[in-house]
Q: What sequence folds into this?
């Protein structure tokens, strides 16, 4: 589904990704683990097309299509979703308005009809219930005054409502207590399906106890330096990143 | 929510300034320039009584002695007051009596402006609506149909100023210039001498005006200025909500719009005055052309417990220079000012309010949202003052500025004077730049860059938009979106 080949990317003229290659087939969940500064967040921004993250060489295709040629909103309409490590506050725009505007923008881009207001509210109510989000919170300005945990849950709610095909979770576990982590993980797991794929970016093995990956990759100094099954995550937890950091250097 | 969606949908389909066309129509002009004879000419055209002519002539004499002010944070070449027409009107014979007799070009103009057909009767000058030019001040749809009758039944007078001078001379004489004195300032004084038309509203004691009143100002003629005069009186216990809209053609030369609006609220009366100003802003690249919008708007909360609320959405004009103000004279009277001022391209705005607390326990509230984009400059200038007798006066001011891009400027100039020990004034101000992070976040969710800007801006101005009457809020929201088109990227 997602294919990354020899990707080089820089930020402010500094090369961060140095020949990264990755294949994520439909139906699979892949975890990317690695030390601080390895390029994990850069990878998520390059895949979603953020300004200032410049690809200098390499290829990224999504279902055979050149992903790098698309604008961020076009990628979103194709089904690429990023759950942000630090979700942004949007003053004056109720969460419901934000999500509905986004959903309809995506549907319009795909040539689908807009969702009606009652249909949308019904969906929002159901998904908020699953994620244990008080529905009244959705009437407040998105993420303004929300706690870290609430913001993360709001990301998963948006994900559930937008129903993307390729999900990138960037440090979704950070700032979550154990109960919130379970709720969020349940939300993510509910989206696992044969025609979806996920990229779970994390420092810690902890999240992977809840969201079981099919493959684990170690990202160090801008490249994938090791890949394996779920057992690799456990090994990293025990032994740390040192040996991979050295290998990359 | 629906409005946001509508904004997003509409913006792509609209041109940047869709009101910029010119109506080609036979017009009658006063000779170019300004002198006492021109003042007499205007007065005669309007068939005015002698007292009105004398009032105008006196204003003209005073104007000659005044200097054009230069304290605002705007810059423009000196205006040649002799190089302008002070009276321009479409040629009509005796004024059309029915829709069929109205010049088809005029009808077409209103249609293009998006004023529904029903409105056109009144707007085109049937039933004695103003004779001032194509860009005439014209009333809202509802007035011509059920409203006129309903208004009369309620005892509400709503008519062009020129008609009011003839038909309701006593009321006009009592209140005209009582809020904005003839020589209050340079532009108000000029207006007093040459004002052409505007609206007059009188709501009798205890009457709640049964509908929104609305006037639409359009400038069409070349080299002409527009000087409208509006006077609204809410008698004891009365209530009225009034809205004005403005557009003008795209022209290379600047045109002067120097209006005066006076509001009088007696005991327990309430006036809500909303403006959606969309004069031609000039060329966004060169700054050429556009309207100079130099307006004096003031409300006198003359009665105890009276209340006036100004709401303005300022998106047009090359230069905006206006401070809708409240003189809180009555005890426990209150004033509100809600403003959205948007500047893009090379526009300059210096706008704000004055809240003059004279009576005891008077209250005022100011919410100002300034948005600067392109190479524009946007200044909030406001005065809050409490006089010795204004014990217990309270004010809350919030001024927020949003910058879009790197070449614009925002300024906040608050003046605060408390001349007694019991006044409580609060002032909050913020300046933020539209963040790339927020934009990316919204775009990652599927919004295009323009849609993302609109959504974020709509969030920023929400507190003010919700003060507008419902149907205009949607219109204003679209306008906000259009004004900011092309401001990013």
A:
């Amino acid at each position: 589904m997602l294919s990354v080949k020899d990707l080089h990317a820089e930020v402010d003229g500094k090369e961060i990704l140095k020949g990264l290659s990755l294949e994520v087939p439909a139906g699979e969940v892949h975890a990317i683990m690695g030390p601080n500064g390895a390029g994990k967040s850069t990878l998520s921004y390059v895949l979603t097309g953020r300004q200032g993250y410049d690809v200098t060489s390499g290829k990224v295709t999504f279902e055979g299509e050149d992903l790098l040629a698309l604008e961020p909103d076009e990628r979103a309409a194709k089904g690429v979703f990023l759950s942000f490590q630090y979700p942004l506050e949007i003053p004056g725009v109720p969460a419901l308005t934000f999500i509905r505007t986004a959903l309809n923008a995506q549907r319009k881009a795909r040539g689908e009809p807009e969702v009606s207001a009652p249909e949308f509210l019904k969906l929002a109510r159901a998904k908020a219930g699953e994620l244990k989000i008080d529905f009244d919170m959705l009437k407040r300005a998105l993420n303004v005054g929300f706690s870290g945990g609430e913001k993360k849950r709001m990301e998963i709610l948006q994900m559930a409502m937008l129903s993307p095909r390729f999900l990138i979770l960037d440090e979704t576990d950070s700032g979550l207590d154990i109960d919130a982590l379970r709720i969020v993980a349940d939300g993510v797991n509910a989206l696992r399906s044969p025609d979806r794929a996920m990229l779970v970016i994390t420092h810690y093995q902890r999240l992977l106890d809840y969201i079981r990956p099919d493959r684990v990759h170690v990202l160090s100094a801008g490249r994938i330096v090791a890949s394996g099954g779920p057992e690799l995550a456990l090994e990293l937890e025990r032994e740390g990143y040192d040996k991979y950091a050295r290998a990359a250097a | 929510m629906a409005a946001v969606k509508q904004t997003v949908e509409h913006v792509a389909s609209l041109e940047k300034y869709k009101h910029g066309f010119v109506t080609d129509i036979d017009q009658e002009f006063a000779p170019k320039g300004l002198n006492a004879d021109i003042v007499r000419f205007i007065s005669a055209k309007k068939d005015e009584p002698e007292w009105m002519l004398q009032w105008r002539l006196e204003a003209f004499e005073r104007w000659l002695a005044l200097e054009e002010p230069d304290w605002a944070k705007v810059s423009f070449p000196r205006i040649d007051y002799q190089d302008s027409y002070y009276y321009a009107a479409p040629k009509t014979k005796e004024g059309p009596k029915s829709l069929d007799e109205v010049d088809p070009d005029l009808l077409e103009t209103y249609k293009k402006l998006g004023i529904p057909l029903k409105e056109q009767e009144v707007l085109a000058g049937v039933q004695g609506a103003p004779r001032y030019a194509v860009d005439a001040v014209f009333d809202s749809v509802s007035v011509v149909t059920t409203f006129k009758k309903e208004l009369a039944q309620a005892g509400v007078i709503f008519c062009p100023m020129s008609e009011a001078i003839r038909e309701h001379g006593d009321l006009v004489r009592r209140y005209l210039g009582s809020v904005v004195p003839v020589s209050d300032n340079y532009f108000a004084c000029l207006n007093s001498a040459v004002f052409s038309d505007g609206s007059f509203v009188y709501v009798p004691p205890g009457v709640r005006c049964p509908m929104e009143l609305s006037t639409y100002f359009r400038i069409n003629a070349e080299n002409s200025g527009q000087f409208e005069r509006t006077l609204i009186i809410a008698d004891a216990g009365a209530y009225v909500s009034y809205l004005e809209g403005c557009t003008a053609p795209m022209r290379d030369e600047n045109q002067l719009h120097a209006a005066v609006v006076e509001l009088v609220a007696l005991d327990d009366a309430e006036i809500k005055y909303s403006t959606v100003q969309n004069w031609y802003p000039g060329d966004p690249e060169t700054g050429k052309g556009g309207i100079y919008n130099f307006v004096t708007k003031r409300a006198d909360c003359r009665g105890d417990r009276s209340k006036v609320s100004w709401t303005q959405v300022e998106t047009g004009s090359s230069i905006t220079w206006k401070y809708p103000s409240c003189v809180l004279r009555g005890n426990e009277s209150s004033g509100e000012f809600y403003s959205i001022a948007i500047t893009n391209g090379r526009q300059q705005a210096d706008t704000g309010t004055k809240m003059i607390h004279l009576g005891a326990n008077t209250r005022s509230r100011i919410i100002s949202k300034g948005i600067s984009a392109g190479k524009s400059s946007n200044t909030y200038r406001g005065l809050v003052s409490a006089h010795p007798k204004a014990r217990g006066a309270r004010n809350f001011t919030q001024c927020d500025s949003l910058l879009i891009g790197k070449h614009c400027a925002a300024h906040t100039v608050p003046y605060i004077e408390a001349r007694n020990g019991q006044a409580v004034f609060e002032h909050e101000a913020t300046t933020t730049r539209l963040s790339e992070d927020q934009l990316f976040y919204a775009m990652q969710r599927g919004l295009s860059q323009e849609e993302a800007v609109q959504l974020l801006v709509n969030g920023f101005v929400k507190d003010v938009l919700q003060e507008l009457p419902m149907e205009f809020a949607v219109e204003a929201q679209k306008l906000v979106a259009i004004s900011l088109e092309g401001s990013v990227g």
Remarks:
- Chain B touches chain A through 29 residues (CB under 8 Å).
- Residues 72 and 350 of chain B are 6 Å apart (CA to CA).
- The first helix of chain B runs from residue 2 to 13.
